[in-house]
Design goal:
Largest sheet: 7 strands, mixed
Distance between the termini: 67 Å
Shape: globular
Number of helices: 21
Length: 619
């Protein structure tokens, strides 16, 4: 016999919103909420539901407001949403603002010891007896404030349908299988979930249901991916200085290198990691190691890169391979250390005084953070020049879904290195800066070569083909032109643009880096409005001519980026001035990742404006 549903029950079922909402957790920095939020995120991921997590935190150590946002979307759209559908309020200092920011119809979970009034009647409010429940658990007193956050994990799990077993698995992952912390935290989760089951009535429309959309995927951050990619690319020397948001890249190298890079016979490390006294020392060490023949790298952010500029200019001119990761943050100056941006592109493109150029790699996923980390060493050594990899805080420190990393599919490319037998064949007659092959790339020797003719004098001053000091005008002119030729040679070897097409597209959205998730969702929104669009993601600089070929085929190219001045737009117009009328900049930065709605609103307004202009001109 079928169960007859009441009208209210039918309406509630029909209005259910399943696997498509955003959760924001408002807490205090340093309160231990990172463990709780990571458990929610990873549990949802383990339920097979596409998800992403972004931590919006202050640049102090402890005490200021922190927000963690989790985007759940069954269609795989995981860019940041501006409005929260569910909000967990644990911070009295931001309680009123958090309540005000919640979307109408949203769910508001709050610690009931926060004695502020609920001033909205268009949201569903759920009080949580955090202090009452935590008193029922036998744990050390010094842990209670930290473990208290597990109360909202359990209550949220019960109310929206997070599988408790998946939360346990997430805690086991976080605590690396240590039984005691897992049991302490999970006991609070279980207690809170049981309390919610007995005391709270579900009145909001948000639900989770298990899917199979994350099978075969991993959940990680870009800095971890970059560290692992560098290890599999053969990194031998790392020198760095702590700076947000790049610190965790070096810390991950320190974590994984001892496990993955020991000599199997001697048990000795086959790497060196040095925490230098400042950024100047860090880059100086890396350039020296690269000159000596080691695969050398450093990692930093904008302020640190500013200090490194002189040494990177030396490496460009003396033709020394070195890799530098710039995990971009909001500048200029100290700026916003814990906010994201894409503001270093033009700075890095021309970094160094005089006529300088740099290879820039622009990863657009955690998988590319891994891939470009090992490829950067190949490019640096092949072309004997610095390679700067531009990531950003959003990639570097937040959790992203991706495919399992693939082992490098080619042997290491060391470039034009002469060893003893090579010099013997040449009777020792060689020149460090001579363009033998006509491609602008000379041959080099490295430390360890015992041939008596292997040595040369490395200098950042004027030099001829034999590395002799020279102020001769013709020699100087030829040297700079050879360096330019080298950069023409390398263009086809750099990662080429990723292009996605849509039938009937007249417009093209062009970007780089971490903006792709927002752009992909914006394209879907535009398609609903009858506007088809193609997508081009630039993955390296200097541009190959294929970029010009792509952009020239569209009526309009929208250049989307997270900076004030439209830096990618500037570079594209500088290289292809004839395409300027076809390029329109959408550059926006406020320290937060772009949303699909921001991009959609801008492009839709411009396209509608064109329609109105076209109709008016016809009239």
């Amino acid at each position: 016999m079928e169960t007859q549903l009441t009208i209210d029950e039918r309406l509630r079922i029909e209005s259910r919103i399943v696997n498509d909402f955003s959760i924001t957790v408002a807490t205090v920095n340093g309160s231990g909420s990172q463990t709780s939020n990571a458990a929610i995120l990873r549990a949802i991921f383990k339920m097979g539901i596409p998800v992403s997590g972004k931590n919006i935190f202050p640049s102090n150590i402890q005490g200021l407001p922190t927000w963690y946002t989790i985007r759940v979307n069954k269609d795989g759209f995981v860019a940041r949403k501006r409005e929260a559908d569910i909000l967990v309020a644990m911070n009295p200092a931001t309680f009123s603002k958090d309540l005000e920011s919640l979307k109408p119809g949203g769910a508001f979970f709050y610690a009931d010891d926060i004695r502020f009034p609920i001033t909205r009647d268009d949201v569903v409010a759920y009080p949580m007896p955090v202090k009452q429940l935590i008193r029922q658990v036998e744990i050390p007193a010094y842990l209670k404030d930290y473990v208290a956050n597990m109360v909202y994990v359990g209550i949220l799990a019960q109310m929206i349908g997070i599988d408790l077993e998946k939360i346990r698995q997430a805690l086991e992952f976080h605590f690396k299988g240590k039984a005691k912390p897992v049991e302490i935290n999970f006991s609070v989760v279980s207690l809170a979930a049981e309390w919610a089951r007995e005391n709270l009535e579900k009145k909001d429309p948000y639900y989770l249901e298990a899917m199979d959309a994350t099978a075969g995927l991993i959940l990680t951050d870009g800095n971890t991916a970059a560290a692992l990619g560098a290890i599999y690319g053969g990194v031998q020397f790392v020198s760095w200085y702590p700076i947000t948001p790049a610190t965790s890249l070096a810390e991950n190298l320190q974590q994984y290198l001892p496990r993955l890079r020991k000599d199997p016979e001697t048990g000795k490390n086959t790497f060196v990691v040095v925490q230098a006294e400042d950024e100047l020392a860090a880059i100086g060490m890396a350039v020296g190691a690269g000159w000596g023949g080691l695969r050398a790298m450093s990692s930093t952010s904008g302020p640190g890169l500013s200090l490194m500029t002189e040494y990177i200019g030396l490496a460009y001119f003396a033709e020394v391979p070195v890799v530098v990761w710039d995990i971009q943050r909001a500048g200029p100056s100290t700026g916003l250390p814990t906010r994201t941006a894409q503001g270093d592109l033009t700075f890095v493109a021309f970094m160094g005084h005089g006529d300088t150029q740099n290879i820039i790699l622009l990863p657009g996923s955690v998988n590319e953070c891994f891939e470009f980390a090992w490829k950067a060493f190949d490019l640096a050594e092949q072309f004997q020049t610095p390679v700067i990899v531009l990531s950003d805080l959003d990639f570097g420190m937040n959790q992203w879904m991706g495919k399992p990393f693939e082992y490098p599919d080619q042997p290491m490319q060391r470039g034009k290195v002469l060893w003893e037998e090579d010099l013997e064949k040449l009777d020792g007659r060689w020149a460090r800066y001579l363009d033998v092959d006509g491609d602008g790339i000379p041959y080099r020797t490295v430390m360890g070569n015992r041939h008596p003719k292997a040595a040369y004098f490395t200098r950042g001053t004027g030099h001829d083909e034999y590395a002799n000091y020279s102020e001769d005008p013709e020699v100087w002119h030829a040297l700079l032109n050879r360096l330019k030729k080298k950069f023409e040679t390398l263009k086809p070897f750099l990662p080429q643009p990723v292009v996605e097409k849509m039938e009937g597209a007249r417009i093209n959205l062009v970007s780089f880096g971490s903006t792709e998730p927002a752009i992909q969702e914006a394209r879907a929104l535009l398609q609903r409005e009858g506007i088809a669009s193609d997508f081009t993601r630039i993955r390296s600089y200097p541009f190959d001519d294929v970029v010009k070929e792509i952009c020239s085929t569209y009526e309009r190219n929208y250049i989307v980026e997270m900076n004030r001045d439209g830096q990618l737009h500037q570079l594209l117009r500088m290289h292809y001035p004839e395409l300027s009328p076809k390029m329109l900049s959408y550059a926006y930065t406020d320290g937060l990742p772009l949303t699909a709605k921001q991009i959609f609103d801008f492009i839709l307004s411009k396209e509608k404006e064109d329609e109105r202009t076209g109709i008016a001109s016809e009239c």
